Amino acid sequence: MKKITTVLVLLTVGLINAQAFKGKGDVKFDIGANFQNGGSGIRVSSDFGLGENMSFGFATSYLLSVSNDDLGNKPDFGDRVDLKGRFNANLGNVFKLDPKMDLYPGLDLGLRNFGAHLGFRYFFTEGFGFFTEAGIPIASYKTNPIGFDKLNNQFTFNIGASFNL
Predict the structure, then answer these.
(1) What does R_g of the chain's alpha carbons equal in angstroms?
(2) Where does the record locate the signal sequence feature (predicted)?
(3) Residue 20: what pLDDT?
C-alpha cells in the first residue's frame, strides 16, 4: 500500500501543462511493467514521431516472474524475452483531447507474432507522464503455440512511466 501511495503522490505532484505528442521529431520513451497470463516482467519502448499523427518505434519486454510448466521446467532467456517494431497512429489531437493526453492505436511486428496495441499517455509535465497499453496477437508464427511458446504470444497489459525526450 505504501508503494501505491508513493507512486500516486509522485504522479500528482507536478500537474503543469505538457503536450503528449508533438509530431515529427518527437521522441517518447516508456518504461513499465508487463502483465500477462503465466508471467509478469518489465517493458521498455521508444516511439519516434514521423508526422503530425504518426510514429514508429521499438518495444522489448522481459518476463521476470514466470510459472513453471506442467513438468516443472523453467523457461530460458529466449522464452522470456520479446522484441517488436511498432507503428502508431497518435490520435489525441484528432479527437481534440487535452494536449497532455494521447490515444494511440498501432500495429507491431515481433519475434513471436504480428499484433495490435491500444495505448494512452498522459503527461504531467513537459517531460514526464504515465502510459498504459494493451496488446493482442493477430497472427502467431506458430499455428498452435504450446508450453512456453504461449509467453509473449497472448494478451498483454502494460503500465508505467513515460518520458518525452
Answers:
(1) 17
(2) 1-18
(3) 58
* Average pLDDT for 71-97: 91
**Model-level pTM?**
0.80
SS3 string, the chain, reads CHHHHHHHHHHHHCCCCCCCCCCCCCEEEEEEEEEECCEEEEEEEEEEECCCCEEEEEEEEEEEEECCCCCCCCCCHHHHEEEEEEEEECCCCCCCCCCCEEEEEEEEEECCEEEEEEEEEEECCCCEEEEEEEEEEEEECCCCCCHHHHCCCCCEEEEEEEEEC
Please give the grid coordinates belonging to residue 149. Answer: 511458446
Tens-digit pLDDT profile for residues 23-76: 666 788 999 999 998 889 999 999 999 988 999 999 999 999 887 777 778 888
CA angle 151, 157, 158 (to 5 degrees): 110
Cell digits of residue 65:
516472474
Q: In the structure grid, which three cell numbers stand for residue 69, read together?
A: 510448466
Instruction: For residues 12 and 8, give the distance between their C-alpha atoms in angstroms, rounded to a whole number.
Output: 6
